[in-house]
Design a protein that fits this description.
alpha/beta, 313 residues
Length: 313
């Protein structure tokens, strides 16, 4: 008899560090806005909330723990969702900056990018005539000449100080097939133990394109490296590819990630007014596919998390 499919974990990436205020009036920037959108997304069905911070003065990405502490405890108190803190920050942050708040907070989960890469949305700048803030245009255009650094030594350090020492588990962000092999290397080294939660990312310039065939390739490669039962996979589709690729992932037995970090839109030409709108949309799709949505407690059990009572915020 076939194994019944998992309930589907919905992750929501609330704000990120890629989009800028000019791109959408609905992008949450202040601690209040981030908290409100995160809480609403959890109420809509997101079991995991993936969090970055923004400077409340002008919306630029920040790694300042003092900003994180203005909204993370508020989200914790208002929801049962798993709080997942970025270790990626932005391409302009040092590793020490990126880890400043995660090391303080010791969360249940953190994101972990599995390789250095070109990561850019610089062509978007050509379509914008006026910018709200002076920092935005050079920030977006400057991505063309930056590398998102995640060396083997960086990854090893994060696995040690957060994984081994803080009991944090990871959303392993894989932007390319080679990132799966990097993850397999750390499994072979004994630095990563299951259950693995692999986030396949499609549609970012510098990584895997949004072709459906790439999703099949990623899944087949993960099967070879880890065995079908050795991991759980989720999918992030950037921009307009969000809902089609997530629907495909769900049919294949995977989990899904939405949020204004990944796409500013709800549909063709329609800006999403909140992360919760995207959560509600993917939940409707899952319902139509006769798939059940995981609660935070069920997500914790599937991913082997240490529990909300074991964090430091």
């Amino acid at each position: 008899m076939p194994t019944p499919p998992d309930k589907v974990i919905i992750s929501c990436a609330v704000t990120g560090s890629v989009h800028t205020p000019t791109m959408s009036p609905y992008l949450p920037l202040t601690p209040d806005q981030i908290a409100e959108q995160a809480i609403e997304a959890a109420e809509a069905g997101a079991a995991i909330l993936h969090l970055h911070a923004r400077d409340p003065a002008d919306g630029r990405p920040t790694a300042d723990p003092a900003v994180f502490t203005q909204f993370v405890p508020r989200i914790r108190d208002a929801t049962d969702a798993v709080i997942n803190i970025t270790t990626g920050g932005s391409t302009r942050m040092t590793l020490a900056e990126r880890l400043a708040y995660p090391l303080q907070a010791r969360p249940e989960m953190c994101s972990l990018n599995m390789g250095s890469m070109n990561f850019s949305i610089h062509p978007v700048a050509r379509r914008i005539g006026e910018w709200q803030h002076d920092w935005e245009k050079p920030y977006v255009e400057g991505m063309e000449d930056l590398i998102f650094r995640n060396t083997f030594a960086d990854i090893r350090h994060i696995l040690r100080v957060l994984g081994e020492e803080a009991g944090t588990r990871f959303e392993f962000e894989c932007y390319d097939i080679g990132h799966l092999y990097n993850l397999a290397h750390f499994v072979d080294e004994g630095l990563v133990r299951g259950p693995l939660f692999i986030q396949g990312i499609f549609g970012i310039l510098g990584g895997l394109g949004p072709d459906p065939e790439n999703l099949v390739t990623l899944r087949a490669t993960a099967d070879r490296l880890f065995g079908r039962g050795g991991y759980r996979f989720s999918v992030l589709g950037a921009g307009r590819h969000q809902m089609p690729l997530l629907s495909m992932a769900a049919v294949m037995g995977g989990h899904v990630r939405v949020g204004l970090e990944d796409s500013l839109y709800l549909g063709r030409g329609q800006l999403a007014r909140s992360c919760a709108e995207q959560v509600r949309k993917i939940r409707r799709i899952l319902d139509e596919l006769s798939l059940d949505v995981a609660t935070p407690a069920e997500a914790r059990a599937m991913l082997g998390l240490k529990g909300a009572g074991a964090v430091a915020f």
